[in-house]
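Dear colleague,

Following up on Tuesday's group meeting, I ran the structure prediction for the two-component complex that the binding team flagged. I've pasted the input sequences exactly as they went in, so you can double-check that nothing got truncated or mislabelled along the way. The C-alpha cells for the whole assembly follow below. Feel free to forward this to whoever is handling the docking comparison.

Inputs:
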Amino acid sequence: MILGSINPAVLLAALMVAATPILLAAIGELVVEKAGVLNLGVEGMMIMGACIGFIVAVNTGSPLIGFLGAALGGMALSLLFALLTQALMTNQVASGLALTLFGLGLTALLGQSYVGITPPRTPKLDLGPLSDIPFLGRALFTHDIVVYLSIALVAAVWWFLKYSRAGMILRAVGENHDAAHALGYHVKRVRVLAIMFGGACAGLGGAYLSLIRVPQWTEGMTVGAGWIALALVVFASWRPWRALAGAYLFGGVVVLQLNLQAAGVKIPVEYLSMSPYLITIFVLVLISSGKARGSLNAPGSLNRPFHASN
Amino acid sequence: MIRLERRKEPSKFWRIANPFLAVVLTMLAGGAMFAALGKDPVAAIRLIFFDPIFSQTFGSYSRPQLLIKSAPLILIAIGLAIGFKANIWNIGAEGQYIIGALFGAGVALAFFPAPGWYIFPLMVMAGAFGGFLWAMIPAILKTRFNTNEILVSLLLVYVAERILAAMALGLMRNPDIPGFPGSRDLRRYEAAHNAELIANTGIHWGVVAALIAVIFAYVMMTRHMLGYQVQLAGQAPRAARFGGVSPARLVVICLGISGALAGLAGMFEVSGPGGQVRIEFASGYGFTAIIVAFLGRLNPFGIVLAGLLLGLTYIGGELSQMILQLPGAAIQVFQGMLLFFLLALDFQTNYRLRLTRGMRI
C-alpha cells in the first residue's frame, strides 16, 4: 500500500545523499578522536561550513569553490579549538561546546542576508553508461561528485590509519601520548593537524547540506547533524568503514521517514521527524552496552590533555 | 624562549579575576564586531550592558526584565554546575526545560477553567518531575548501558523540540481559536498564572525558586556529604570509588537535580513570562546556562552574578535589535565569545608563562 509507492532505487539514491553530510563530518571527527582529541564542536564547524560554503558559492557562482571555502571555514573554526585545547590547555568538552555555541551565533550573523537565495546547482557527475544499468545505475551512479568523494575519503582514511607511517604515529599519539612523546613524536603538532582535518571535513559536510541536500541557507540548519556525526564515531567504534555503514543506515532512516511523511502516514510529522535522533540514541545504547567491543576500542588518550612537563 | 609551566596549585587570584577579565575582553572584541557591522561600538556596548538598568527612557521597562531573564538561567546553571563538578555533563538542559514546561502547562490545561489554590503547586511539582524524567533517560542509559550522557542528553533536545511542536499544534492547542498553533494563554488563567509577586520588579515564583536553589546548592556543596562526594568524584574519580562513592548513584543524582531544576525553570517560564505553549517557546536558556555555569566558576554565588550578566545581555540584545537594528544573532556571538575568552584566560590559573634560556621543544 503506502510502502509500495516507494521506488527502492530512488530510495537508495536518496539515502546516499542524506548520509553524505554526516559521513563527511564523522570521518573527520574519527581522525580527530584517533589522535586523542574529543572535539564536541562538530555541529559548530558544520554550520560554519554550511554558511561559508553557501556565501562563497553564491558570490562566485561555483559550488566547487563554495565547498573549498566551506572546508576552510570549518578549518578556521577548528583552529580556534586547537589554540584553546592544545596551546592553552583548556577543557576539551567545554571548548567544544563553546565552539558550537559560537559557530551557531556567528553563522546566523554572517548568513543573515543570504536567507531565501537559491545557490548555484552542483552538477551530477556524468558516468556515461554506468548510470544506464538498471536499478544500480539509478541508485549508485547518478550522484554529484561529493558523494563519491566522501566514499573515497573513507577509503583514504582507512588506508592512512592502517598502513601509512603518519597514520601509525597519529594512532600512537591517540593511544598513549606520553609514550609517543617519549619516542620523539610531536604530540601537539599531530593533534593540531588532526583537528584541522576534522574541521575541514565538518565544513564540507555542512556545505553539502546547504548547497546540495536542502539547498538553501537558514539559521541553525544543521539541526543536530554534527551531534549525530559524533554519535556515529562511537557507533563505528572508531573504524572508518563502519562509519560508512552507520551513516548509510542513518541515511536510510531519514529517507524512509521522509517518504512516510510524503506518503501521508497518519502519524504527525513532528513524531516522524524525531525518529533519526531516537534511532541514533538507540544505536548508541546498543553499541555501548556491548562492553567488550564498542567502548574498549576508544583511543586510550581520548579527551586527556597533554602537557610535556619536563 | 617562552614556555608554559604547570603551577603547583591553581592560582586563586586568576580564578576570581578571569571572569571579569573575560567580560572586558568580550566587550572589546564585541565592540570590534559591532564596528565591523557599521555600528557605533561604544553606543552598542552601552546599550547592551548599561542602558537596560540605567536608562531614563526605557529603564522602567527593562529593569524588571533583568530578573525575568536571569532567573531561569540561574536556576538551570545551578543544577548543571553540580554535575559539571563531578564530570557529569548534562548539556541537554534545553530539552529538560521544554519537557518541564509541557508537564506544567499540561497540568494547568487539564484543570482549566477550574479555580483552586492547589493548581499552581501541582504545576510546580509536575514541571520539576517532567525535567527530572527527561534527564533520567541519559542517566539510566549511562548507568545501565554505559552510553555517553553528553550525546544522549543533547540529542534529546531535538526530540523535545519536536514534542513541543506536536503539543502546540495538537494536544495542547487552544480549542477556542481554531487554526492557530499554541495553547491557551496561562496568564489569563488565574489559578495557573505565575504572576509578578511585587509589581514592576519582575519577581515571580521562578526568581524565588532560583534564590532557594542557590542557597540549597551552596549548603549542599560545602556542608553536606553529597557535595563532598561530587567534588571528590570530579577531582579524583579513582579515590572516590575506593572511598565508597557509587558513580552510578552520582550520575542519577546529578542529572536528576539538574533536570528537575531545568524543568522548574521551564514551568515558571510557560506559566509566567512565556505565557503559553508555542512552537517558538524554547529560547536557548538551556544552552546559555552552560556559559553561566562556567562563568560563575561552578560556584552558586558566582552563578548568580554570571546569570545576571547574561540576563543583561539578553535584554541588551533585544534593545540593540530595536534601537540600533543590530541582528539578533549578534548577542549569541557575544555569549560564545565570552566563553571562549574565559576558557582561554584560564590557562593562567593552572599554568604560568616562564622565560627560559636555551633551546626547548
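The radius of gyration of chain B is 22 Å.

Cheers,
M.
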